[in-house]
Amino acid sequence: MSEILVLVEHVDGEVKKVTLELLTLARSLGTPAAVWAGPGYGEPAKARLAEYGAEKVYLADSAEIVDYVVGPKAELLATLVAEKSPAAVLIAATPEGKEIAGRLAIKTDSGVITDAVGLSEGFVADQSIFGGGVNVKSRVTKGTPIIAVRPNSTAPEAAPGAAAEEQVTVTLSDAAKAAKVVERVKQEKGARPELTEAAIVVSGGRGVGSAENFAIIEKLADSLGAAVGASRAATDAGWYPHQFQVGQTGKTVSPQLYIAAGISGAIQHRAGMQTAKTIVAINKDPEAPIFELADFGVVGDLFQVVPQLTEEIEKRK
Amino acid sequence: MDPMNIVVCVKQVPDTATERKLRSDDNTLDRDAADGVVNELDEYAVEEALRLKEAHGGEVTVLTMGPDKAADTIRKALAMGADKAVHLVDDALHGSDALSTSYAMAQTLKKIGFDLVILGSESTDARTGVLAAMLAERLGVAQLTLANKVEVEGSAVTIQRVTDYGYDKVQGSLPAVISVVEKINEPRYPSFKGIMAAKKKPVQKLGAAEAELAADQIGLGAAWSEVTEAAAAPPRAAGTVVKDEGDGGVKTADFLSSKKFI
Ligand SMILES: Cc1cc2nc3c(=O)[nH]c(=O)nc-3n(C[C@H](O)[C@H](O)[C@H](O)COP(=O)(O)OP(=O)(O)OC[C@H]3O[C@@H](n4cnc5c(N)ncnc54)[C@H](O)[C@@H]3O)c2cc1C
Ligand SMILES: Cc1cc2nc3c(=O)[nH]c(=O)nc-3n(C[C@H](O)[C@H](O)[C@H](O)COP(=O)(O)OP(=O)(O)OC[C@H]3O[C@@H](n4cnc5c(N)ncnc54)[C@H](O)[C@@H]3O)c2cc1C
Description:
The structure holds two protein chains of two kinds. Chain A is an alpha/beta fold. Chain A has helices at residues 17-27, 43-51, 71-84, 95-107, 214-224, 232-236, 267-270, 290-293, 302-316, and strands spanning 3-7, 10-11, 14-15, 31-37, 56-60, 88-92, 112-120, 124-129, 134-140, 146-149, 164-167, 180-186, 200-204, 227-230, 257-261, 278-283, 296-299. Chain A is 27% helix and 27% strand. Chain B has a single domain, classed as HUPs (Rossmann fold, 3-Layer(aba) Sandwich), CATH 3.40.50. Chain B has helices at residues 40-56, 71-80, 98-112, 131-139, 192-198, 219-222, 248-258; strands spanning 4-9, 12-14, 36-38, 58-65, 84-88, 116-120, 142-153, 156-162, 166-173, 176-180, 203-206, 225-232, 240-243. The termini of chain B are far apart. Classes of the chains: A alpha/beta, B alpha/beta. The interface between A and B is large, with 93 and 87 residues. Chain A: The electron transfer flavoprotein serves as a specific electron acceptor for other dehydrogenases. It transfers the electrons to the main respiratory chain via ETF-ubiquinone oxidoreductase (ETF dehydrogenase).
């Protein structure tokens, strides 16, 4: 079977969950080959990639690859596409992943599909568009299919692969080095999982009422090992940092479970969470549109319901 | 540094508040089904362009690719304070995918010239979020994207690029392509004076031939990808909604247990 390239997402030498999802997806359509860009590759990473079925690992682990905005990664992938003629390239549909996919598409004269939520025979992609209102199937018709897949689209499944390493060297062009990263600023993140990757997301909206009150949302999230999200009303009010905004102009999440507390469910909010597998809503207004989406809803005061739920979860653990 | 020639890319999109559809004949966006509005993020792009012009001098040109009715979107950007506009409009462009769109826009940008191109980071209709990166690739200039802060000093441009962990400080030099995220600024409302002035500002219409676009690179026929099927998403199965009688939290926990989340 032909090779499918999977660009590895990694932090501090650890492979991110979305990559395991992409390897799983690649395995159903061909032979997965992981592409590691940047420093940090070691035994833990190799073991992880092998566990999830990478037959090959193409290694470009020089620091230079991550010193510039996306250009080098696109160049690395373009080199591999030319040398290995893979059947497709899979990249996580994060903002950066999509940018890499876009530049790679131009370099290889190939079509690109963004935000795929599923992938089947012939690299036909499923996309959920217009805030989840329409489902489409699309495919690349020219070049090598380049597909940006949304995190949480597939459940990762282990199946051993050889993870045979092959060093790749790219000589970066000047164009790839035009935007230099001069400093990385890490803002406090805490121990919670990343919003777009999390299996469970607990979000608070205007109903939460204040920054201090977000503590009850965080407690519920922590009881479930979840990430915290917020509606735009909450981030605009300054109650929760902007990077946690879920929705059309915020992050798109597709978790197994999404809990919305004090969120009305405006279409722009739904655009960022509608593909969640299970949705729970807590809202005091029985007419709130969020209930149309909810698998389970409680009409009630979140200040009563949420703490009780947290307590109950702690009890049952 | 000379005054800057800033081009801001503004897209007309169907209003998210209305029902959006694809056309049943060719699965492209149905632009007649919904009101067209300025892509919200592009208002932030226009605002940033105006602020840079106010600080450094120069000129702001709006670039829109879209059908005739996209002229409304151009007017709004002009009313905010942009100086002039280029409207890339041709039936041959219908159905262009991201590759074709970036090709058409890059060709036009080469033709009209630029020091800085500013885009929104994502449109609300297609949401591919690839266009700024594609333009940087096609134009061979610095990609300074996902910015929540932009500073220009001489020919050096520094941005804060939003990341999962915070931000990266990124540097490049002019000419460059920038994309902005929401919260970089607060877009101004057009004033009455601005709206009146906009009516007299020059809008240059360019067809595919005038922009020197190769026919085999644009439109539905040239697209690198195709939509093969489209259907309204099946409505979610109606869920259970209970009223809190003092046990709402417990009942929610029961539901979560039944789904094995606890
Ligand atoms: C172009 C555009 C882009 C946008 N992008 C986004 C986006 O990315 N993300 C986003 O979220 N929004 C976005 N919005 C804004 C969106 O339209 C809504 O305004 C926003 O989602 C509302 O947030 P909310 O649900 O928290 O607030 P509201 O709509 O005010 O709802 C608050 C809810 O809390 C309930 N409530 C109040 N008190 C309690 C209580 N004690 N207990 C239980 N329930 C309570 C109320 O009944 C109400 O239903 C966008 C808007 C536009 C125009
Ligand atoms: C639902 C849907 C899904 C799609 N999926 C794909 C896909 O997977 N692959 C693909 O190749 N194409 C896809 N397309 C087609 C693609 O959206 C168009 O080619 C589009 O013009 C460019 O993509 P965008 O709007 O998503 O750009 P984005 O990259 O999301 O937009 C970023 C910015 O680019 C600027 N911009 C974008 N378009 C214009 C314009 N016409 N005029 C001026 N400025 C503009 C704006 O500043 C905007 O904020 C899709 C279209 C739809 C409707």
